[in-house]
Amino acid sequence: MSDVRDRNESAWLLTPDGSREEPRLREQMRTFADTDEVDIVIVGCGAGGSTLMQRLARAGWSVVAMDAGPFWRPESDWVSDEAGSHHLYWGESRVIGGTDPVPLGSNNSGRGVGGSMVHYAGYTPRFHPSDFSTFTDDGVGADWPLAYDDLKPYYSDIEGELPVAGEDWPWGDPHSYPHRPHPVSGNGELFQRGALALGITAKVGPVAIANGRFGHRPHCIYRGFCLQGCKVNAKASPLVTHVPDALDHGAEIRADAMVSRVAVDERSGLATGVHYLYRGKERFQRARMVAIAGYSIETPRLLLNSASTRFPDGLCNDFDQVGRYLMVQGAPQTAARFDEEVRMFKGPPPEVSSEEFYETDPAKPYKRGFSIQTVSPLPITWAEHVTAQGHWGASLRHHMSDYVHWACLGALCEFLPQANNRVTLADETDRYGLPVARFDYSQCENDRMLLDAARHVMEDILTAAGGKGVITINRAAHLVGGARMAADETQGVVDSDGVSFAVPNLLITDGSVLPTQGSANPALTIMAVAARAADRLVRRTSSAHSRRALA
């Protein structure tokens, strides 16, 4: 644990009861003037932005990180209630289209410091080595301009900092986790029972939830409200895992600051800072470098809204790559009723999973694959499942009163990147007068085959466990892509270090840079990519003098 503390002391910068960060961190937070030319301004304080901020602050950089949402105080701002947690989602207007439009909000967008990791399920598997070469190996998707081994040490570092708890992992690059697995609740036990009956390997974890005290972070109390913001701070999110350490090393977080445009000098072609809206006024923060970490909808939107004479079609969009290849994962959920009480809401929503179907199977008609996890929808979300089956009125009430007898599994299907699945600007504007994002999405035939295959496997597992009355709802989760990394500027927006091809002092360090998404939850990979980008950046610019020379 000492090596973790040496590089990230966030878990020890909470009050002894773990309820909040030490008050001095906010009360005495270093602040900068707009006229100060800081080393870097970061747009977004989610998985990628907060990791980058913490790493650069530790390296002695002057850092301002802006977020359009609040700087949350879990003990007062969050509640253990579904309906009372909607303010954690990005609720600004967006337009959706395509043949398979993707609803945006609760499970794929965050608002405020910590981003969508504030309300993610806490599941943090690694991508597999094969994810980085799907085009070479399988003829689909895209090859990354880096390999699994380039991220491996950063995966390990972040797993220690969150921390991650789980059994030894046999899939992809087999590895262990720094903390022992959590006990399994009723939903997980049924998954294990059905998987064992079918000869399918299932493992507990990996969850980024403290199992026992970690620094001043408390133990998980298994109350089941991970998706509503962990009020007890046992679940990892950047708000508790990287933000405190960043503040302790001199970073400033400027919350409720909506960045409207990245400024680029027309002569030098370098970014000079960001225009933003704060307390009703337009302001401009000067910076030697700019990093964008607004995630897969807002990052392309900001680039497109930053058009100029030099970039008439949007910043970094010389080759029409901004906004393209945006992906979701197919995330069907299958449930079954059991005679005994299951109480699936107890414990973390994902506890047990299998990646046995993750890789391409030459015997199947589709490429790539899917993973399966326990999921545990709370009553409002469960009601959506039931109404999707056509139940209403008395039938809906009957199913809801029977809630404690149901178990539910979810799959993550690797949908393929397609150029026309993209973000553009809509004619509609938001409350700031900025054009909102339009996200068009259509599934391909491979996507649909994966959905069907995953549904059949989940139905088989629950039936083998003794479940009856199986029902499935199709849904989507986990946005990635939209400003992908590539080998050259004709195929993507940034290089393998997250540096823009078009603007050499502009970085993108969020999920938008991922060329493919695998069948794994992306949070850990986003953080690892950002940690690597920070490491590479610090090595290239090892002194204040060289940073100024770069800019």
From TrEMBL:
Region (Disordered) location: 1-20
Ranges of residues in domain Glucose-methanol-choline oxidoreductase C-terminal: 417-530
Pfam families per the UniProt record, alphabetical: GMC_oxred_C, GMC_oxred_N
Annotated Glucose-methanol-choline oxidoreductase N-terminal domain residues: 109-308
Domain of life of the organism encoding this protein: Bacteria
Keywords: FAD, Flavoprotein, Oxidoreductase
Family under the similarity heading: Belongs to the GMC oxidoreductase family.
Protein name: GMC family oxidoreductase
Taxonomic placement: Bacteria, Bacillati, Actinomycetota, Actinomycetes, Micrococcales
